[in-house]
Write a structure and sequence with these properties.
Layout lengths: L11 H5 L9 E5 L2 H11 L4 E8 L11 E7 L3 E6 H4 L3 H7 L5 E4 L2 H8 L10 E3 L14 H9 L19 H23 L16
Parallel strand pairs: 1-4, 2-5, 5-6
Antiparallel strand pairs: 2-3, 3-4
Helix pairs in contact: 6-7
Length: 209
């Protein structure tokens, strides 16, 4: 493990020069309660999952919309639960409160704050990457920067402000959403394995021989 004294950071100009990362797994768009139940039954076979959410952007000051999409990823598959269509069903709530399944995400407090507007539940066994990356000397807190530091690739944010409540999710939206959830799991794996990091701001060398 690296030490916090290294203070690793990366700037936007450097990120812009990196190759773009792409999600290479299978994407499943979940738009019915029955599809959701089948998907969650499959996800319960895993002990660790990557998660993220998307919310339709609001361009009015002080207004926040409800969660539109919940992404839950394994290493090979990502399920996109269209909450605006199916709601926050009991099976999803039960997965989020399951102590036996570890859920990996980033900035989870914000996600839960918005989700609590839909259902007042008590999340269990979640790991927020922002709470652990400093132990590896990483100062940056955004998913894009953390991923760039560790893997030397850029996560495109071009779809972030798109309409997540559109009648159909576009292919770029699907890949953007899936990548964010999968990336959380991929980052956690790398940290746990103490894998060499791609980048340091000062030396541009691997941090772990």
């Amino acid at each position: 493990m690296t030490t916090a004294q290294q203070h690793i950071s990366i700037d936007k100009a450097t990120i812009s020069e990196l190759p773009i990362e792409c999600f290479a797994g299978r994407i499943h768009v979940i738009e019915s309660v029955e599809m959701a139940r089948q998907a969650i039954e499959h996800l319960r076979r895993y002990t660790m999952l990557g998660i993220d959410t998307e919310t339709r952007p609001s361009f009015r000051k002080g207004r926040t919309n409800k969660v539109s999409l919940i992404q839950i990823s394994t290493h090979d598959d990502c399920y996109l639960f269209r909450i605006n269509k199916i709601g926050f069903i009991d099976e999803l709530r039960d997965l989020f409160t399951d102590k036996d399944v570890t859920k990996i995400g980033l900035s989870l407090r914000d996600d839960f704050s918005v989700l609590h507007r839909v259902d007042n539940f008590q999340p269990q066994n979640f790991i927020d990457l922002q709470s652990i990356v400093r132990d590896y000397g990483i100062d940056d807190m955004s998913l894009q920067k953390i991923y760039a530091i560790i893997f030397g690739k850029k996560i495109s944010k071009s779809q972030r402000l798109s309409n997540w409540e559109a009648p159909e999710l576009s292919v770029p939206q699907q890949y953007y959403a899936a990548l964010d959830a999968w990336a959380c799991l991929h980052i956690y794996d790398a940290l746990q394995e103490h894998a060499p990091f791609y980048y340091t701001q000062s030396k541009k060398e691997t941090l772990i021989p």
